[in-house]
Amino acid sequence: MATINDVAHLAGVSTATVSRALNGKSTVDPALAERVRSAADELGYQPNGPARNLRRRETAVFALIISDVENPFFTAIARGVEDTAQTAGYSVVLCNSDENPEKERRYIDVALQERVAGVVLSPTGASPSIERLRRGGTPVVAVDRPLIACDQVLVDSRRAAREATEHLIAAGYTRIGCIGGPPGVRTADDRVAGYRDALHGRSPRLERRAEYRTTGGRQAARDLLADSPDALLVANSSMAIGVLEVLAEAGLRPGRDVGVVAFDDAPWTTLINPSLTVVAQPAREIGAEAARLLLARIAEPAHPPVVTILGAHLIPRGSTRH
Amino acid sequence: MATINDVAHLAGVSTATVSRALNGKSTVDPALAERVRSAADELGYQPNGPARNLRRRETAVFALIISDVENPFFTAIARGVEDTAQTAGYSVVLCNSDENPEKERRYIDVALQERVAGVVLSPTGASPSIERLRRGGTPVVAVDRPLIACDQVLVDSRRAAREATEHLIAAGYTRIGCIGGPPGVRTADDRVAGYRDALHGRSPRLERRAEYRTTGGRQAARDLLADSPDALLVANSSMAIGVLEVLAEAGLRPGRDVGVVAFDDAPWTTLINPSLTVVAQPAREIGAEAARLLLARIAEPAHPPVVTILGAHLIPRGSTRH
DNA sequence: ATGAAAGCGCTAACAA
DNA sequence: TTGTTAGCGCTTTCAT
């Protein structure tokens, strides 16, 4: 593969001039610059990133470490991060931690070693590995789940869960169950807390917690059905799939036999009949804001951490009409 | 951030020994190695990736460039690639080309510049930028869509589309429409071709082509409805969402008023009523095989290109019962 | 405006 | 087994 030296020889200039020309420095003669560019073209020259990054001590790449690539909520965040980053000249590489702290740690190390310009992270838990990022001085912004002493973009999950539950109460449901995510995951805990906030004895507490996945939803729903709830608050869209499957098996129809509201406005929620009442989170905006915070922090590393809290809104649909 | 020099000083050895110890070379005294490791730990040492990659002239990273992160088919491929790559000690960074040749080109350049060990690519079209990868000698494997003179993992889309259409014919439908993906995209063209293969005059050709997205499906379906089809073959799951929406608007019930079969067994396809007949593609296996091919090519760069064709299978469900 | 040369942090010959 | 040293390809002073 051609190096800067080859280009310099072909263009009959020094490597310094090649570097300057290709990086658009103003101090280079237009004619020379042109000669350099065509030489580079002819050789199919691609600057050696590692060498450049080593010398510059920085890269134009963000790492985005999310807990589940197969969850539309996170892919929507990815789109938001990407759009904003691209505009500012950064590329985004996506790493899937798969809700697995070990994989998260691996990817944080990769990000650190590759000296990425910044990291957007949806933390899988207490994540001791964050400490390394901090020590390395790499800018980090947490999304969806909090991370102390760090820029963050969060959603007011608790309030959203409370409102969703109040919506169920207002619709006349009296035995409202909650299918929550795994204990210890902040969004999961918050949603359960919001559910409790709303009850005030107007419904018994019927809670089950499980993994943020379809199988988790399935298990929790099977189990909770024993308590014969007349409505269900489900903590995310992957779980909702499992819950709806179980309901169908049991011959229970959403909206008629049992009210259902779930977090995340996944693309399929309007296809089912009746369509699913959801709590829509501004996923794309979360990503965009995270990228903005990262850019701001790069520009001003000493700035105190900023926490952005975005709202979620209920979209009432058929599954909660009594 | 600590460098190898700092570690060497703290451990009282040379940088060479540090490098050897940390990379697990056998030729280093266990006691020394231990001293080095604890020194590295104490300093929170993270090897400088750019420097290492520059020197080694290789990285342990694969780039996976897919055309749409929000499409479950591609995220499933991502999982397959990742699982296999991780096992072999490689990390995978995911780049979203968004069906946009310009973004694809950008990410190919990034991959090239960062000197990744290999690229898995779902090409967005003729992709002239592949030429650069080839010139750079970077191993590439194409997934889902063909790429000349290159390892490839494909699905026999044409056959699958033919079988799906035959299934519709066997079910007694006589005006079978085809909602195809964008012309020029190979999988899209193949699926339309398979549809035609099956017809033999047993149904008029009712074809519409659009983007591989929900809006594309919506447009094409609205348009095609004018030809009053009694069944529909839909080219992917994102389009299927749009198609089903339009059907619902028009008061047409899948499986009763109009038969529907779509490519991709998305998670929601069993939730709708009746559930959706689909052509299931082995997405995860596609990814895993792609990663295997990449590893094989790295081990043996001169080996002639291998093309793996995987099968897809029809899963008949309620939406095609007459 | 251009070139010469130093050096980013690491690994791999080569010596010892 | 360990250390010394050259150099990977680039950018950036410092001269000119």
Automatic annotation (TrEMBL), chains A, B:
Organism superkingdom: Bacteria
UniProt entry tagged with the keyword Transcription: yes
A molecular function GO annotation: transcription cis-regulatory region binding
Keyword Repressor on entry: yes
Listed InterPro entries: HTH_LacI, LacI/GalR-like_sensor, Lambda_DNA-bd_dom_sf, Peripla_BP_I
Keyword annotations: DNA-binding, Repressor, Transcription, Transcription regulation
Ranges of residues in domain HTH lacI-type: 2-56
The protein's name: Substrate-binding domain-containing protein
Organism in which the protein naturally occurs: Amycolatopsis pithecellobii
